[in-house]
Amino acid sequence: TVFAKPTATFTATANICLNQQVSIAGITPAAPGSINSWKWFFGDATTAINNNNTSFTRPYTTFGNYTIKLVTVNTNGCTSDTASKPVAVHSMPVADFTLPTSVCMPGATNINNTSSSPDGSALTYAWDFDDASAIDNSINPSHTYAVAGSYDIALKVTSSFGCVTNKVKTFSAFFDKPIADFLVNPAALCQGNPNSFTDQSSAPNSSVASYLWTFGDNSTSADPNPSHTYAIPGVYTVQLQVTSNENCVSNPLPKIVTVYLQPTVDAGPSFLVAQGTHVQFKPVVNDSTGVVYTWDPGFGLSNANALRPIYIANADQEFTLYATGAGNCKASDKLSVKIYKPVKVPNAFSPNGDRVHDLWDINNINDYPEATVEVFNRYGQSVYRSAGYAKPWDGNYNGKPLPVATYYYVIKLGSGFQPMSGSVTILR
Q1: Rounded to an integer, what distance in angstroms lies between the CA atom of residue 403 and that of residue 352?
Q2: Do the beta carbons of residue 283 and residue 294 sit within 8 Å?
């Protein structure tokens, strides 16, 4: 007796994601008294024997490609040919991302996408920023929130096989930018004088951690309240930028500082001249452009506001040169004009202690501080010498009276005057 071989047929889902189950259906039906067992081989080293052809589902624990097989056995003990169906179980994508430590408003929230695909399938992304904005499909999005708050940032990752994984993270580390502000005193000043800068910055909900000052002359400072001296006149833009404890950086705040030229003056040499001499002053200045010069007193000058006026020397006078530049920057210096009087040298004196002509008084020689006086005897030997003539000669030499005689003098007045010479007689 030869019995007929049973048949084995079924259908199975060809592609599933790892979190899904394979649907097995269309299984060979059993005629009454014919098939009594359905043997299943699932391709992952597991099997099952069913006693009916009811459809069922089955999960897989790892992704990969599997072959499901079915063998039927009838009541006569005959087995069918093996029926098989391939099944591809695809991995679930790994959805993950990192958020910034903090965001300085109104800055962007830059997100680093760290998602991956274990089976190497291509991934697509959908970002929901929890603020009613449109879905963003970029890989590493940058999103700017209108206001600070607490937001649930959701990422949906889909593989090329339609496998989906979601990830949600909450972000609320929003900080306001600090606000740079400062006072400058003074805002306009003369060259070489210091400016003082006073910080008035603020950091809402935080505090200022560091400062960066730029003074417009290639110099900087990190002090909260610096001072700065400009060496060159000009108009400078001073900027302050501050950083908060959360590393939020303010917008730079500029302010203008105007530095005016500081005049420097040297009134020039003083003069010792004969009465009636026309003297032209010879001052030295660092810049005459835009600087007003005034001599005081102005009486007797050709022009009291000229830098180099002419003075007719009729009397001793001290003059002060005042220089006033832009920004009311000032400087001054002095010179003197002295009228020398003729030196009158007595040709005799009588140092006998009667208090009458006891000293050789040389009239007006004290007007010549550089003068030297030297007296010689008839043999050319020096018997008296002095630099200046603060104390008139008393006719002594080395503390002893000189004899009655005629002596010869040479007086050098200095300042370009010709030496004077002549004779003086000592009488007793």
Answers
A1: 11
A2: no
